[in-house]
Amino acid sequence: MSQQSEYIKNIAIVFSGTAIAQAVPLVLSPILSRLYTPEDFGVYALAMSIGICAAAVAMSQYNHGIMLEKEEDNAKQVVVVSFLITALLSLISLLVLLVIVFGFHLSSLENIKSACFLLPFYVFFVGIISSLSYWNNRNKRYKIISTGRVISAVVTITTQIILAFIFRVTPLLLLIGLVLGQFCSFLYLLFSSSDLYRGFFGNFSFNKVKLLSIKYKRFLIFTSFSDLLNILLMQLPVFILTRLAGAVQTGQFSFSNRILAMPISFISSSVGEVFKQRAVEEYTQKGNCSTVFFQTFKGLFLLSIVPFAVLFVFAPTIFAFAFGEVWREAGVFTRIMTPMFFFKFTVSPLTYIYYINGKQKEDFILHVLMLILIVVSFYFGYEWFQSVNIALLFYSLCFAGIYIYYFCRSYVLSKRNISL
Q1: Which of these ranges, 11-15, 27-31, 123-127, has the smallest mean pLDDT?
Q2: Using an 8 Å Cβ cutoff, are 39 and 251 in contact?
């Protein structure tokens, strides 16, 4: 089988699994939208945003070293580094979350204060799942990665629906479903990665772990905070809308994300999983990866152009018909953010070029500039026009411009000759 054919096949495997993982929530969302209110989703979105930000720090991004390390035994040691740091930072996140939830008077979190202990478990599971996914990606076991995502998606939404029929409906039930879905995916990946533990203890070395921790420290120093800033940028509307417009508007926005932004992220990251492995392989063989870069971008562009055009025109009608008239505004938000979603889908997998080229510091600086730009655009959009829609439009256009810059810069880096 040619490299191109294998590349397309691997993308198809990950993509099909991710498609199933997203199809189940989409099919069942009309039930979910009639069991939970926009306010429920608003509270859930705020709690989940806090957990996602904590998870970005806990992952520490040492898992990139799993892909980049040439020696198999060394890659296993990097997995250990990732596990240990994730466990440590998950414990720290527990303390931080307790301070945030109980130390500040956030009225939107009053209903779930008793369950704040669930978020550190979510943080831990997400971090370990990420490391195990990178290990399986390194070994081209894409079926395992895909199955893990399907398990997470199916368990999450079915649990959220079943609990709503058993107990009084609250945002807590949504959070329980989310954590349980991550837990089941964690167990599956843990037991499916048996080769990781084979002969591991005989080759384990604290000294090697220390050396590898130092070798990939730039991922901890720069990439962790870049990813945290990136997640803050994506979650920023949740915090701002909760503060300025209340839980109902936040719920409309978060439901839009649930239906569209999250599937886009999963599908785009599925292509990214295969792109990472192939890009590293091409750099090792040829010194650059411009061929696979352009091939991946072309495929993503052709795949996305029609669906996004349909969403831009019909999103409000689609949301009102599928989920109920109460969710029409979520469709309006989706239409406004279509430019951002489109460029996120087509460009974000390709930005892994920054990590391969050792440009973590540049990426971090860009994320700081992005944060400033987005905060300013969102603030003035709302303050000047007193409109959530205008604020989201500024937010969407700023992100679209940033992704265009990332694409141009990543393409230049993909043609740069380096030796891994």
Answers
A1: 11-15
A2: yes
